[in-house]
Amino acid sequence: MRDHMADNDETWMREAIAAARQKGTSPADTPIAAIIVRDGKALAVAVNETQENCDATAHAEMMAFRQAGKAAGDMDLRGATLYTTLQPCGMCTMASIWAKVGRIVYGAGREDVHKMYFEDRHLDTMDFIHDAWRDDLRIEGGCLTDECAALYYGPDDDVPKEEQGNV
Ligand SMILES: [Zn+2]
Questions:
Q1: pLDDT of 21 higher than 60
Q2: Among 139, 49, 151, residue whose Cα is nearest residue 93
Q3: CB 89 within 8 A of CB 118
Q4: Distance, CA of 130 to CA of 26 (rounded, Å)
Q5: What confidence tier does 2 reach under pLDDT thresholds 50, 70, 90?
Q6: Span from the CA of 43 to the centroid of ligand 1 (angstroms)
Q7: Cα 68 to chain center, whole Å?
Q8: How far apart are CA 137 and CA 145, in angstroms?
Q9: How far apart are alpha carbons 16 and 20 in whole angstroms?
Q10: Distance between CA 58 and CA 48 in Å, rounded?
C-alpha cells in the first residue's frame, strides 16, 4: 500500500519534471528543476540558469532557495521540502542545510547519471547531511528515478567535453 506522503512526493516531482522539460528535452539543455513546498504550497519553482545568468552558482536548487526565501520573507525554510529532479550537488546540499529545509527528495541519483553532474570523485554529499549539526533534515532519493534520469546524460554516455561543467 502506498502512503500519502509518497503520493504527494510523486505529484510534486511530476511538477518538477514538467518545469525541467520546459527548459528543453535534451540533456544539453540542462533540464534540472527544483521546487520548494511548505504546507502544501509551492514557495518556489526554479530551473538551472547557470548558462543564462553566467553564474556557476545558479543551480536549480540555489535559484529555488532565493525565490522561496523572498516568498516566505525569511531565509529560514524550516518545515519545507525541497524536490529536485537530480540529487543535489555539494553546493546545493550545503545550501539546504543553511536554508533549514526539513526534507530533500530527489529523482535521479548520482549512480543514475553521468559523472559530469557531480564535482567530486568519491565524496558522497549524503555525508554532509549525516554529519550536519542539524538533526532535523532528511534526504530521500528514488522518487520517479527513471523519469528523472531520462532527462540527463547516462553514466556511459559519451558527453562532449565542453558540456562537462565539472572538468
Ligand atoms: Zn547544485
A1: yes
A2: 139
A3: yes
A4: 34
A5: low
A6: 19
A7: 14
A8: 21
A9: 6
A10: 6
Q: Is 140 among the catalytic positions?
A: no
Selected catalytic residue, list 61, 111, 140, 162:
61
Residue pair 108/85 in contact by the 8 Å Cβ criterion: yes
Angle among Cα 98, 103, 108 to the nearest 5 degrees reads: 105
Bridge partners of 66, per DSSP, are none
**Residue 2 Cα to ligand 1 middle (Å):** 30
Q: What are 19's three cell numbers?
A: 518545469
Q: How far is the CA of 33 from the centre of ligand 1 (A)?
A: 11
CA–centroid distance, residue 150 to ligand 1 (Å): 18
pLDDT digits (tens, 9 = 90+) for 51-97: 999 999 999 999 999 999 999 999 999 999 999 999 999 999 999 99
Cα of 65 vs centre of ligand 1, distance in Å, is 11
